[in-house]
User: What shape does this take?
Amino acid sequence: MAGCRFPGHTELFAHRTKTRRFAMMFKSAKLNVVLATVHVPLMDVRNLFTIGCVYDPIDLGNEAMQRLGVAKPRIAVCGLNPHASENGQFGDEESRVIGPAIEMAKQHGIDARGPFPADTIFGPALAGKYDLVVAMYHDQGLIPLKMVA
Assistant: This one.
């Protein structure tokens, strides 16, 4: 309503600093989350969903966690669909996009695992099994984070 063409500060900062690769990340004492997509209507996520869209937050999140003192971050990657698609029953994004992004991360020495069902992965992350969770969209990652932080 104010005439700003950016949906949020993350996109504004990226534009102003001419940053091509960026992600929105949240750090708390109990849970760390980085988002693959940020301020995008849920209906539009599928149209923007690429291997790079998932790989970049894995890679950037890994680097951020290292800068925060975690030498070898353990990264859990959420699926997009319920039950991480249940082997294709609820979509193909896990096998077509998320899985290849995780494999690319592994090839670059990143300890990324998944895709995991988003409704079950935050418990193990809170228990300390993972240092960072990569969520596919805004509310998938921010609801659990805001519940505990």
Q: What stands out?
A: The helical segments are 9-16, 42-48, 51-67, 93-107, 118-126, 138-148. The beta strands are 25-27, 32-35, 74-78, 111-116, 132-135.
